[in-house]
Amino acid sequence: MTKNIIAIICTSLFLCGCGENIEKLAGKHLDNAKEAFSMGKFNIAKQEIDSIRILYPKAFETRRQGIRLMQQVEEAEQMRTIEYEDSIIALITEAFEKIKGDYVFEKDEQYQDLGLYTIKSQAVTRNIDRTYIRASVDELGRMTLVSSYRGSSYIHHDWLKLSVGEKYVDTPESRDRHEFTDLGVCYERLSFINGNDGGAAAFISANKDADITYTLYRKTGPDSSRPVYRNLKMTKDDRYAIAKLYELSQILLSLTEHKNLRDEAERHLMFIRSKIKDGSAQDTIQENN
Questions:
Q1: Helix boundaries (H) for the chain
Q2: Rounded Cα–Cα distance for residues 164 and 206 (Å)
Q3: Which of 9, 70, 71, 120 is most buried, by CB atoms within 10 Å?
Q4: Coil, strand or helix at 267
Q5: What is the number of alpha carbons within 13 Å of residue 213 lying toward its C-beta?
Q6: Interatomic CA distance for residues 260 and 269, integer angstroms
Q7: How far apart are CA 56 and CA 100, in angstroms?
Q8: Which of these, 258, 213, 205, lies nearest to 235 by C-alpha position?
Q9: For residues 70 and 205, what is the distance between their CA atoms, to the nearest angstrom?
């Protein structure tokens, strides 16, 4: 009986010694994490904290401290992201403010959630008597190209090919077509909405100083089309108007993206702070043998 008691006591002392040693070894990683955190090296801090969990799963106290430190690291990360995004948003907004006077802004508060930016020279009312390509950009930066056709009969066109010499771009097929007749004249409006133009706007912008021609096509079968209006020439005014709207689109798309990133960081920050406040993450360490 005495031998059994001695054996139990020795085993307990051994296990306690191992536990203390494990906490000590894990504590080195925690110290490294704290140092990295103080220097703003958040990724290194998180790697050191993860090492505690992976290498020393039984170092319960150090792991708890690691969780608290991880929350502080994640909080600081989101605050840094918010600060960065705020600075980028300010720069983009400043760039937008400098050029927004070049555009016409229209919004029907009763029917539209988002207003549209256009160029005065491309207004429908000023171009009712010709076939041309026009563009608009909404407040989020999404660009729409419209192939506007005028003729003695409908051609029911589905897509366009734009060319500069040997270079060309094809739009995708669009079923967003509006047709009407006024005083015996047929009109078609084929729209490529929210940037889904196959790169046509970017092509026009890149070649605004070149002669751009385009052809209207109609689908005749699952894998075939035929030209229904050939070799139309874009005017310089149209090329420059679309290029300028494309520039606006890129600015507003970037602004929207960075606002979304900031909002996401803000949500994450609120979530982290709620965990810090209630201390719920500490319950994830289970001291089970």
A1: 2-38, 42-55, 60-99, 200-206, 236-278
A2: 11
A3: 70
A4: helix
A5: 9
A6: 14
A7: 58
A8: 213
A9: 47
Residue 110 pLDDT level (bands cut at 50, 70, 90): confident
SS3 state of residue 187: strand
Spell out the residues 6+ positions from residue 62 whose beta carbon is closer than 8 angstroms to its own.
23, 26, 27, 29, 30, 52, 56
Stated pTM of the model:
0.84
Residues of the chain above pLDDT 90, percent:
83
Residue 2 confidence (pLDDT) above 80? no
| Whether residue 99 has pLDDT greater than 60 | yes
pLDDT digits (tens, 9 = 90+) for 118-130: 999 999 999 999 9
| C-alpha R_g of the chain | 32
Closest CA to 85 of 254, 249, 268: 254
Q: Give the integer Cα–Cα distance in Å for 158 and 231.
A: 16
Partners of 132 in the beta sheet?
148
Three-state DSSP class for residue 4 = helix
Q: Domains of the chain: which residue ranges?
A: 2-97, 103-249
The first and second tokens of residue 235, run together, are: 């005017």
Q: Residue for token digits 């096509």?
A: 217
Per-residue pLDDT averaged across 55-64, rounded?
Answer: 93
Alpha-carbon gap, residue 71 to 76, rounded angstroms = 9
